[in-house]
């Protein structure tokens, strides 16, 4: 009789870390920056965040039901919550509710479940959604607001905020509260021919940028808290240093060179590092296990590619921010990188040829 | 004369079973390019249908004169001649439609469906059957283009058959509807990625329907046997 046991050949290494555990740790690492962002932008941001995460879970449940997969076990892995969470953090905090719902549909249904669910998606779901939203709804997706911390008197209350997110219950003039993000402001001023030293004279101080008290996406403003979360993930060895370090290098090297050539036309490397989504992308998005290369060397190539593309798109492209585009482009390249840079198989050299066998002594 | 059952088989083959877009996955280039609105899809589909019927009939008539070795250049010559006539005719009498479809009308020459039907059907069958095949395939293509155009237009701009009277004549004015008033527009659906996405979901729907029909037929056959 033929053995029914699966074909096995060792050695195996067992990792006690399960998918839900990894997802939970990433959420814990994201929590400080998230709570800060929600507090900074007030109730509309809380509503948007809740709507986005809830709809992501709902769409995941619907897809699983259609595909006939185990509902509770797959939902409990937390990947849908995390996708919705990351998407929400990359949205403008006062965006209307349907941006969150359409974004979750694009992320979960189009970018993830259609390909077969977690682990099968070639592109980062949250970034697919962000790019699709940005291309489709440029007005809503670029309307950032000045920070209005939840405890301050000029922040909209619980009821007034309903008007911002859901369009009923009160009235708020969006044009009066909107305020351009640093990169967006620099881009429009440069296009008008205003030198940077003049354009940025009213921008927030370096400390404001560091703590994140600036206009921007919901969870991308606080450089320090994102950095802390990233260091937590590094310390837990959920991510390795290769992708984030290479990405930061890819942004900072051209930024430094161009800034030295002409400081009036090119933003300083420090601004690039602190502004918008650089740290968020480096630690939380580019490091996505599913869509980035497997090997360390591959991750270095991938990270550098992301970084350089981010700088190129920010500086010479049509959009002020290029994180999502850069990551999608490098996602597309990562199967190629994986073919090119392969890990060495035990007993073979890097090109896959068997190693020379040493003859045994005494024969 | 053809038996009615054979005529029916030829027509359903073109309209559904071997539908140009939904089963053969041919002619995707004009599909992605012109189905941003239902009107454009309908116009393109009808133009292709006319060309397809005409080329099928002509090639079926001359099929005895063409030796197998030179058949492909000969087919292309016939197709190019007929498409040029259609191109000039649309430019003369349907100028608004021509301005939108523009480049894609002459490109019907290279549409794989036309040469495909010439090679696979018209060169082996009589003129009447070939005309029917051209009609079935053309209308099947029109159906797919219009369906995808409708979905993309509703999702993308919230209207249906916008500008139909301008392009296809005043008789089509009744088709123009605003499905979602004060819609902000979902630009991605009008752009080529939207074409791929909608086509994919339409293909899923066709397979689901085919599976359902096959199951029902299986049940019917089982009950007939018992």
Key words describing this protein structure:
heterodimer; A: 363 residues; mainly alpha; 59% helix; globular; B: 226 residues; two-stranded antiparallel ribbon; 10 helices; 71% helix
Report on this structure:
The complex is a heterodimer of chains A (363) and B (226). Chain A has helices spanning 19-67, 71-75, 79-89, 97-110, 125-136, 138-141, 158-166, 174-177, 182-191, 196-199, 206-211, 223-235, 242-261, 269-274, 278-285, 296-316, 323-340. With 363 residues, chain A is mainly alpha-helical. Chain A has one domain (19-340). In chain A, helix 1 packs across helix 3 (79-89) and helix 3 (79-89) crosses helix 4. The longest helix of chain A is centred in the N-terminal third of the chain and has 49 residues, at 19-67. The relative contact order of chain A is 0.11. By secondary structure, chain B is mainly α. Chain B has one domain. In chain B, strands 1-2 form a two-stranded antiparallel sheet. In chain B, helix 3 (38-62) packs antiparallel against helix 7 (127-157) and helix 4 crosses helix 5 (95-101). The two termini of chain B are 38 Å apart. The mean pLDDT of chain B is 88. Chain A binds chain B through residues 102, 110, 114, 132, 135-137, and chain B through 184-189, 191, 193, 197, 200.
């Amino acid at each position: 009789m033929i053995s029914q046991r699966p074909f096995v050949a060792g050695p195996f290494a067992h990792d006690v870390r399960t998918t839900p555990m990894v997802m939970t740790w990433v959420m814990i690492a994201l929590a400080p920056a998230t709570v800060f962002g929600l507090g900074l932008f007030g109730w509309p941001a809380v509503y948007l965040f809740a709507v986005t995460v809830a709809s992501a879970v709902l769409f995941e449940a619907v897809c699983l039901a259609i595909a006939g997969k185990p509902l509770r076990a797959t939902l409990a892995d937390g990947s849908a919550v995390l996708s919705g969470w990351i998407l929400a953090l990359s949205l403008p905090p006062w965006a209307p509710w349907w941006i969150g719902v359409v974004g979750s549909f694009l992320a979960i249904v189009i970018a993830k479940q259609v390909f077969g669910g977690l682990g099968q998606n070639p592109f980062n779901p949250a970034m697919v959604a962000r790019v699709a939203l940005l291309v489709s709804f440029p007005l809503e997706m670029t309307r950032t607001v000045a920070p209005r911390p939840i405890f301050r008197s000029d922040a909209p209350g619980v009821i007034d905020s309903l008007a911002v997110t859901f369009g009923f219950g009160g009235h708020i003039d969006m044009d009066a509260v909107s305020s351009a993000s640093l990169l967006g402001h620099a881009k429009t001023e440069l296009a008008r021919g205003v030198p940077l030293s003049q354009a940025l004279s009213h921008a927030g101080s370096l400390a404001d940028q560091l703590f994140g008290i600036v206009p921007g996406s919901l969870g991308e403003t606080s450089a320090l808290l994102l950095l802390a979360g990233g260091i937590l993930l590094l310390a837990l060895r959920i991510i390795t240093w290769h992708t984030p370090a290479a990405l930061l290098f890819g942004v900072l090297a051209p930024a430094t060179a161009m800034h030295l050539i002409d400081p009036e036309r090119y933003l300083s490397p420090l601004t690039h590092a602190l502004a918008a989504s650089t740290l968020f992308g480096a630690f939380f998005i580019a490091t996505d296990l599913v869509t980035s290369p497997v090997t360390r060397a591959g991750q270095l190539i991938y990270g550098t590619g992301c970084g350089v593309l981010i700088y190129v798109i920010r500086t010479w492209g049509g959009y002020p921010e290029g994180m999502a585009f850069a990551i999608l482009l490098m996602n597309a390249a990562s199967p190629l990188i994986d073919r090119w840079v392969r890990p060495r198989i035990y007993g073979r050299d890097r090109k896959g040829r068997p190693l020379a066998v040493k003859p045994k002594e005494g024969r | 004369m053809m038996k009615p059952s054979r005529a029916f088989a030829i027509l359903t083959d073109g309209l559904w079973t071997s539908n140009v877009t939904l089963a053969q996955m041919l002619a995707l280039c004009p599909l992605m390019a012109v189905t941003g609105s239902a009107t454009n899809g309908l116009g393109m589909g009808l133009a292709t249908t006319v060309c397809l019927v005409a080329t099928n009939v002509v090639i079926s008539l001359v099929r005895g004169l063409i030796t197998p070795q030179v058949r492909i250049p000969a087919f292309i010559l016939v197709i190019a001649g007929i498409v040029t006539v259609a191109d000039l005719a649309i430019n003369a009498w349907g100028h608004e439609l021509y301005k939108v479809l523009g480049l894609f009308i002459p490109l019907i020459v290279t549409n794989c469906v036309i040469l495909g039907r010439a090679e696979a059907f018209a060169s082996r069958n009589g003129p009447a059957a070939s005309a029917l095949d051209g009609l079935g395939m053309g209308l099947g293509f029109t159906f797919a283009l219009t369906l995808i155009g409708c979905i993309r237009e509703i999702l993308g701009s919230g209207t249906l058959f916008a500008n139909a009277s301008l392009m296809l004549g005043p008789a089509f004015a009744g088709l123009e509807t605003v499905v979602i008033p004060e819609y902000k527009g979902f630009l991605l659906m009008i752009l080529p990625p939207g074409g791929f996405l909608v086509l994919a979901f339409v293909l899923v729907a066709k397979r689901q329907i085919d599976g359902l029909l096959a199951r029902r037929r299986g049940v019917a056959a089982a009950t007939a046997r018992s």
